[in-house]
Design goal:
By secondary structure, this protein is mainly alpha-helical. The chain has two domains: about 140 residues, DNA polymerase, domain 1 (Orthogonal Bundle), CATH 1.10.150; about 130 residues, Intergrase catalytic core (hpI Integrase, Chain A, Orthogonal Bundle). The chain contains ten helices and five strands; from the N terminus they run ααααααααβββββαα. A three-stranded antiparallel beta sheet has the order 1-2-5, with no helix packed on it. Strands 3-4 form a two-stranded antiparallel sheet. It is elongated and about 65 Å long. It starts with a helix and ends with a helix. The N terminus is likely disordered.
Amino acid sequence: MRRYARAQDRMAATTAAERGWQQHVERRKEQQHGPSGRSEGQRGSAGPAVQAPPHGDEFLQHVDSRVVKHDLAFATGDSYRETLAKVWRPKLGARLFAAVRYSELRKIADAHAKSKKTYNNVVSVWRRAVDYGYRATPEKHNPATGLKCLRITKKDRPVIAPFSSQEAAALLAASHRDWGEAQGNYDACRFCSGLRPSEQLARLVSDRDIVHTKISISKARVMARDKDRTKTSTDRPGGLCPRALQVLQRCLALRARLPLAGKIQRDDLFFRETGEPIRDLQYPWVRWRSTRRKM
C-alpha cells in the first residue's frame, strides 16, 4: 500500500511539474520578447527587431521537450534560456550560425566571464545550441567547436574550512537569538542531518520516522518549485544522529504549537516564524550570512 501511495504521489507531482514548467516558459518568453515578440528595448525603435537565430529557438523547444519528459532538470533548462538571452543573442542578433566567426565567439565569451566556472557555463550552452543546429548540415564547419571549456583544477576550488564545535554552537545560538526558533531549527538541522539545502526545504512531516531514527530522501525544492527527485535522481534513506533527532523533535514541538494559532496550513517540516513554508533557498541563506557577519 505504501508503494502504491507513493507512486500515486509521484504521478501527481509529475503532472503538476509539467504544468508548472509550461507556465514558467511562457512567462519567460513574455519577459524576454513581450506579447508582440520583441524585447522591451526594441519596442518603439525604428531599427529592425533583434531575433534569435532560428536554430537557437528550435534548440530551446527541444530543451523544453526534454524538461517535460524529465530528461532534463527545469533549473538546467532555465539556465540555458537565460544564458542565450543575456549573453549570446544581444551580441549576435539575427545572424545565422554560418555567418559567425570563431574569433567573434571567443571575444564574447572572454568579455562576459570573469571566472573559469562562469566561462565554462557560457561556452557549453552556446556549443549545445550550435551543435543542435549543425546536425542538419554535418558537412559544414561548425565554428563553435573551437570553443573549449577551461580545466578546473584542485587549486581553483575553495578550500573547505569546517567549523569547530565551539564555532558551530556559537553560530546556532546567534541564529536563534537573531531570527527565532524556526530559523534556528533550520540552521541546526543543516549541521547534523547531511541533507542538501534543496532536500532540507522539501522535507515533510510524513518523511520522518522518529521511532527508527530515519528519514526518506526522495525529493527537493529548487527555485521555489518542488521536484519529485533529488539532485542525483537517486532516492536514499537517511539515518538520524542523536543531535539531528533532537532538532527534528524541536521542529515538531514548534509545529504543534503554531497550528493552535491557525498559522500552519501545510505539511512542511521547516517553515518561517509566520507558519509559511520556506520556498526559496535565498531566504534562510541571507539570514545566515547576516548572522555570520555579526560574529
